[in-house]
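Attaching the record inline, Q. Sequence:
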Amino acid sequence: MVIGITTLAFALIHLVPGDPARIELGPTATPAALAHLRDELGLNHPLVEQYWHFMRGAFTGSFGNSLQYQQSVSSIIGPRITASALLIGYSLLIAILVALPLAVLAMSLGLEVLRVELGMTAATALSVAVIAGTRRLHPAQRKV
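Structure, as predicted:
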């Protein structure tokens, strides 16, 4: 599943219109500067090689440098890992503590529809918590 998600992320990055080098350097960039940045970012390599570097970086925790913040991506997400993991863990715990007893009660009463609904509600609550935990930005890194 992880490989599928990373493959999808890689594909979506490459489906976005525009040239990352041109976007980074602006419309007045010289062809030499564009070629240098494309080479530096590895954009001149075949997609299979780019994907290999992408996957290797993902599995080693080396995500490169953020073009927006001009620092390593690991240093940006590193401080947030603990808070995100805690949010995910507490959300999972709450979902289990609420949904499990209600599902057992619904099963014992023969309320199949309620049991399925409670399971879907717990899954939805967990997914919202996971997404919210990964989308939080540090106040110092928000655009003003």
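Residues 73-141 form one domain. The helical segments are 2-15, 20-25, 31-41, 47-60, 73-108, 112-135.

More tomorrow.
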